[in-house]
Amino acid sequence: MSAPTTPARSRRARTLAVCAVPVVALLASVPFVPLPFAVAQPGSTVDVLGTHEGRQVIEIKGAQARRTTGQLRMTTIVVTGPRVDVDLGDVISGWTRTDRAVMPHDAVYPVGDSDEEVDAHNKAEMKKSQDAATDAALRYLHRSPDELKVGLSLADVGGPSAGLLFTLGIIDKVDGDGRGGDLTGGRTIAGTGTIDADGTVGQVGGVPLKTQAARRDGATVFLVPKAECSAAEANLPKGLRLVPVQKLQDAVTSLRALRSGDEDAVPTC
After folding, report:
1. I need a surface site. Which of 107, 118, 170, 183 has the fewest CB within 10 A?
2. CATH number, domain 42-81+115-265, options 3.30.1490.150, 3.30.210.10, 3.50.50.60, 3.30.230.10
3. Which of 213, 203, 143 is nearest to 171 (CA)?
4. Interhelix angle 115-141/163-174, nearest 10 degrees
5. Three-state SS letters, the chain
6. Neighbouring residues of 195: CB distance < 8 A, sequence distance ≥ 6
7. What is the mean pLDDT of the chain?
8. CA separation for the pair 106, 103 (Å, rounded)
9. With 60 as the cut, is the pLDDT of residue 134 above it?
10. Taking 50 as the threshold, does the pLDDT of residue 184 lie above it?
11. How confident is the model over 204-217, as pLDDT tens digits?
């Protein structure tokens, strides 16, 4: 036989029941609470040797641009917008899928939360990247800005990570592999990396997602900043070869070696 309920025990039971209501409600709302993260996935790739939205990506004036074969594909990632709420379900999905990445919101959008601020920042970074790519290519080609004019056009793509591919594209359009052939050797080459005017290749982030975009769009070789080799090897798509680079010359030398079939001369991560 159960003991009779005393008034004190009854009050305690009611108190616990009342307290449990907001706790349960709070736990139920957790999956829908916005979290300070952004979720990224593989984005588009663009052949810098070709056209994008009806315009040549690279235009050469002051020299006859070479007719090229093969492709040099810059790679991108797509990230949830600065005002898009990311909840627990999005984060868990991003952690469990190989084609997603969860990043701190402030690391992705350090300049503000408005679309206008983010767009302006990305366009400014792309402009700096294009200027540095032109400077690096002209130095490599031993040409002055007075004798060779380069125009770069890539609508709706922002950020600095196309620098290396822009530079290689300019070189291929003007000089090829320096021996009468294409720098690509007819392959579809993809990659990422910032570029300084002196030819130094810098890190960019998002590499595991960019390798997936590259392989999806037909690339068999991926040029990656050497410091990001470990990141690039994570979930590396089958059939995609990683080639690490630290300097512009590293990339040119490796592409020449691939074109000539000298596989032993091409470094790997």
Report:
1. 107
2. 3.30.230.10
3. 143
4. 40
5. CCCCCCHHHHHHHHHHHHHHHHHHHHHHHHHHCCECEEEEEEEEEEECCCEECCEECEEEECCCCCCCCCEEEEEEEEECCCCCCECHHHHHHHHHCCCCEEEEHHHHCCCCCCHHHHHHHHHHHHHHHHHHHHHHHHHHHCCCCCCCEEEECCCCCCCCCCHHHHHHHHHHHHCCCCCCCCCCCCCEEEECCEECCCCEEECCCCHHHHHHHHHHCCCCEEEEEHHHHHHHHCCCCCCCEEEEECEHHHHHHHHHHHHHCCHHHCCCC
6. 129, 132, 133, 136, 163, 164, 166, 167, 201, 202, 248
7. 85
8. 9
9. yes
10. yes
11. 989 999 999 999 99
pTM, full prediction: 0.81
Structural contact between residues 166 and 195, judged by C-beta atoms closer than 8 angstroms: yes
Predicted confidence (pLDDT) per residue in 46-65, tens digit: 999 999 988 999 999 999 99
| CA distance from start to end of the chain | 74
Domain boundaries, the chain: 42-81+115-265
Residues 6+ apart with CB under 8 A from 13: 5
Distance CA 70, CA 233 (A): 24
- State both tokens at 49: 């040797």
